[in-house]
Amino acid sequence: MDYIYKIPPEWSSHSATQIHWPSNKETWPGERLEKVEWVYLHIINELHRYESIHLFVESKEVYDRAHAKLSAFGIDLNKLTIHIKAINDVWARDCGPVFVQDENGEFVILDWQYNAWGGKYPPYDDDNQLPRYVAETFGLQRIEPGMILEGGSIDVNGDGVLLTTESVLLNKNRNPGLSKEEIESRLKKYLGIEQIIWLRNGLAGDDTDGHIDDITRFLNEDTVLTMICDNPEDVNYEVLQENLEILKSVKLKNGKPLHIETLPLPQTRIEGTTVDGSEYVPASYANFYIANKVVLVPLYDGRYDQQALDLFTKYFPHRRIIGIECSDLVWGQGSIHCITQQWYGI
């Protein structure tokens, strides 16, 4: 079909990455804040060697704290552009601008609305304003598709195929006035999509209702990584098996089946509970981030971490594969992909 806009795959060349410095003490209470800052320092330290970073901090006070820690860690601050801008939390993937190309190949910003996963964590109005802020700051056209959509709820292969979950996009806490057909129509129009692969549900403990970037992601145009459980008693076993069976039934537009790679889900049950009372966190190797010349892979579980790193080495032989321990990050119910958003044309 002819498209008006087209979203690039994550492995295409970025101009920068958007990241928010953690400062929300409801998400990161007590000692959790300093622990997650250390994870951020490691992520930024690796990422800034390969592409520019636009780092958002919510106030001058947070700027001073972040600046001191970044400097002490030896990070080249010339590779960072720091925006002192009101934000609500760290989840840049879900509230940040989505860049697409128009028919002339120019990048424009899609401003999908954001309501903190169905209104779970107010306030979220500052995060919802970020696409407008980026568009106005850098002089880019901004398009409003008129629909709530988080970046972590979709994944694309750059050739017209999109992955998503029914538990998120069809959830009445997002777009109660839109039918499945109307949602599909907007995805096709604004993202240049021809085929939508609908999986059912996401992981236990995922307060987004089941984002795709915790369960199944594209590794290239015809290959996906999907998470599985070996233990039938695991809380996620049946959901992941159902998703695997759906993927096995998919035929791409060329008539060929998807090539499917699997990784075992790391330990997701935690001691105690998260802030929202969950005994589980959405720990997953599918929450990787593909950046320029590097893939950042979250690590959680010594039983499977090396297997995950080996898989990414196989599929991204010309990029460095860097594992980063993310147990303290995923405690807040997101990981590397959730806190990053790639930019183009800036």
Briefly summarize what is shown.
This protein has 346 residues and is an alpha/beta fold. 27% of the residues lie in helices and 21% in strands.
How would the global form be characterised? Answer: globular
Number of helices: 11
Assign the CATH topology.
L-arginine/glycine Amidinotransferase, Chain A
Radius of gyration (Å): 19 Å
End-to-end Cα distance, whole Å, is: 29 Å
What is the top-level CATH class? Alpha Beta
Structure overview:
The longest helix is centred in the first third of the chain and has 16 residues, at 32-47. It is built from 11 helices and 16 strands. Helices cover 27% and strands 21% of the residues. The chain has one domain: L-arginine/glycine Amidinotransferase, Chain A (5-stranded Propeller), CATH 3.75.10. The chain is α/β, with parallel strands linked by helices. It has helices at residues 32-47, 60-72, 92-95, 116-119, 125-128, 130-138, 166-169, 180-191, 237-248, 305-315, 327-330; strands at 16-20, 53-57, 80-84, 98-101, 107-110, 142-143, 155-156, 161-165, 195-199, 216-220, 223-228, 259-264, 289-291, 294-299, 320-325, 341-343. The two termini are 29 Å apart. Strands 3-2-1-16 form a 4-stranded mixed sheet. A 3-stranded mixed sheet has the order 4-5-6. A 3-stranded mixed sheet has the order 7-8-9.
List keywords for this structure.
346 residues; L-arginine/glycine Amidinotransferase, Chain A; 11 helices
